[in-house]
Amino acid sequence: MTTTSAATPSGTLSGSPPLADLGTCRQRLAWLAGGALAGMAAAQIGPGFAVLATFRPRLWPALAGLGVLDHVALTIDDGPDPAATPQFLEMLAARGVHATFFMLGAAAAKSPELAAAVAAAGHEIGVHGWNHRPLPRLGPLATYDLLARARDRIAATTGQAPRLFRPSYGVLTGSALAAARRLELTPVLWTAWGREWRRGATTSSVCATLARGVVGGGTVLLHDSDRYAPEGSWRAGLGAVPLLLDECASKGWRVGPLREHGTRWNRAHTA
Ligand SMILES: [Zn+2]
User: What share of the chain is helix, strand, coil (3-state, %, to 5)?
Assistant: First the structure.
């Protein structure tokens, strides 16, 4: 099964038709998670996921990653991955841009030198969990243990003490919120994503999807691994990066990591 997405930056961030609905994998996970969450976390799941995600910035601006209006936070999940991460690092270095990389503990343990290289290049490091297992499948103790293990391993390999946490699939549980609080990790999701994990996604489709959601003060999600997506899907996201940067520059928005996204996010680092 190979569905390598086009990396050619042939699209633009505006003027493209909107994409279809959620991918089947995400849909299944959303249903799987149904009923397992409580409070604000419940808005991340269920058949109304896409609709609720639309309202998330208004309901929970901090959780959605809203920051200062002249800045767009660029966040990249699921690495480090030897196939993809170096290419993201190269692209971002060429453009002089830093991002926030939400790493998996298991991936950092497998590629410690690469994890260290991401931090050494000046990027911000966040925790994405240990192994991308959906949190609703875990009890409170397992949730805490895996999150603590991930934080500690990522800190050890990168030399940065992570202060941010993004749950796999964007699904938070009460246990995860409690564990994050104990570990002094601030949960953050996103306001716009490329959906490059959809089968058949291309750079153009990623740009079209982003075009619907990127706003000043928003947080963009891309992926630097295809471990949990069709093979090569990260290439579509990588191809969209220069177009995203150009589009943001044309609107006067800076692009950078969450630590540069305003005082709320600075506090997450200095608290
Ligand atoms: Zn992920």
Answer: 50, 10, 40
